[in-house]
């Protein structure tokens, strides 16, 4: 009896301080839906900050290497289009001759190496982060990752004021920042997966996943606005911001219903216990968690669907991250209506790709929910990305309006499947029926899928740094090929979903036919 009486106190002690403070103000327990709202808001802000800090490098590239005579197109950077002579004078003063060692003839290659170093460590760290995330308090784990990310993002910018010109300083700082960044995605997806069942998961996570594009947009706007004060501020301000939000995560994020004593049945009476093939809607059982053991790395790879989606994401993220790291650079080096845009203007313009990505993520999630077909949706979007990429490369230079419209469409088709696979698909597979209700696989499965995708994310920007020196057309050919392979990798799952839909339609037709025959007999 004593142990039972101690249980409420134990649960209250595990609640984040912010949750206890809100309950103190309310003078009562928070509802399950209130906890869900807090989870969505806090994790949305958290990963928005992750992407905002990740985006700054692509904006600052043109300040570090403003000349870039050997990158893709043969024309002098000084032909940059600016709105007024005063702005032109100020802009040149800010950029100067770039920043050693990135302003040499191999500047673009060095910047590409920074990207691949960051993403390689990020991808490797992702596997370990998922493994640790299923074994640790995700709230503490995520907080440490965000504060560490903020610290090392800021240290990159500190090099501006301390006059650091060592390539290895920037390389090491980027690698450690990538390691801390790897804590984010497995953690936020696992927490959201703990609170939301499979019903409407694609739509909910599609909307929630807008944090990726919102973070890219915020990072672009902040970094671009601060460039005129010195490129160091473009790193320090986002770094301080993510550290601050990390503290909010520590204070307010409820990791799971059990950690705060929330009872789903009290708030969602009559909600279906299972959907599909044995996937439990409340992803976590009430008392089973105490006895559950985390799923091993190899065991997680064997879950049906994990490997095809992981390798599909490899090529999907190759395309998405090439745009993430090189789109502002490409825009500033491409004549639009015969004029060249400044790096600040190019950074702002690139946000339309991310705005398209918001719509693409929501559409992909909603369509996959309606069709109950994740593979069909993801593959279709990847195939549609191929002509979108071709048209953007071929016709994007005609006018600013054409560039924005085609960029928006590219963002929609490229980021749609990327968002779907890294959210709803990962959560689905992390609660697959083969796990027999074990909830301790969400972070591991998410890490495997996104970690494999991050390897592609590292390779894409690296190859672009070298290929663009010869031809941007070759870069777009690489991206179109990657989109094709990504779609083809889902062929087996796509066929299985089509067969399942056909069988379901036939059974429904037979059922309605037999019902009508019974009615005729009764008459």
Automatic annotation (TrEMBL):
<dbReference type="InterPro" id="IPR044740">
    <property type="entry name" value="SLC37A1_2"/>
</dbReference>
<feature type="transmembrane region" description="Helical">
    <location>
        <begin position="140"/>
        <end position="161"/>
    </location>
</feature>
<protein>
    <recommendedName>
        <fullName>Major facilitator superfamily (MFS) profile domain-containing protein</fullName>
    </recommendedName>
</protein>
<keyword id="KW-1133">Transmembrane helix</keyword>
<keyword id="KW-0812">Transmembrane</keyword>
<feature type="transmembrane region" description="Helical">
    <location>
        <begin position="109"/>
        <end position="128"/>
    </location>
</feature>
<keyword id="KW-0813">Transport</keyword>
<feature type="transmembrane region" description="Helical">
    <location>
        <begin position="208"/>
        <end position="229"/>
    </location>
</feature>
<comment type="similarity">
    <text>Belongs to the major facilitator superfamily. Organophosphate:Pi antiporter (OPA) (TC 2.A.1.4) family.</text>
</comment>
<feature type="transmembrane region" description="Helical">
    <location>
        <begin position="167"/>
        <end position="196"/>
    </location>
</feature>
<dbReference type="InterPro" id="IPR036259">
    <property type="entry name" value="MFS_trans_sf"/>
</dbReference>
<dbReference type="GO" id="GO:0055062">
    <property type="term" value="P:phosphate ion homeostasis"/>
</dbReference>
<feature type="transmembrane region" description="Helical">
    <location>
        <begin position="398"/>
        <end position="421"/>
    </location>
</feature>
<feature type="transmembrane region" description="Helical">
    <location>
        <begin position="235"/>
        <end position="255"/>
    </location>
</feature>
<feature type="transmembrane region" description="Helical">
    <location>
        <begin position="37"/>
        <end position="53"/>
    </location>
</feature>
<feature type="transmembrane region" description="Helical">
    <location>
        <begin position="306"/>
        <end position="327"/>
    </location>
</feature>
<keyword id="KW-0472">Membrane</keyword>
<dbReference type="Pfam" id="PF07690">
    <property type="entry name" value="MFS_1"/>
</dbReference>
<feature type="domain" description="Major facilitator superfamily (MFS) profile">
    <location>
        <begin position="39"/>
        <end position="499"/>
    </location>
</feature>
<dbReference type="GO" id="GO:0016020">
    <property type="term" value="C:membrane"/>
</dbReference>
<keyword id="KW-0762">Sugar transport</keyword>
<feature type="transmembrane region" description="Helical">
    <location>
        <begin position="473"/>
        <end position="495"/>
    </location>
</feature>
<dbReference type="InterPro" id="IPR020846">
    <property type="entry name" value="MFS_dom"/>
</dbReference>
<dbReference type="GO" id="GO:0061513">
    <property type="term" value="F:glucose 6-phosphate:phosphate antiporter activity"/>
</dbReference>
<feature type="transmembrane region" description="Helical">
    <location>
        <begin position="347"/>
        <end position="368"/>
    </location>
</feature>
<dbReference type="InterPro" id="IPR011701">
    <property type="entry name" value="MFS"/>
</dbReference>
<dbReference type="InterPro" id="IPR000849">
    <property type="entry name" value="Sugar_P_transporter"/>
</dbReference>
<feature type="transmembrane region" description="Helical">
    <location>
        <begin position="375"/>
        <end position="392"/>
    </location>
</feature>
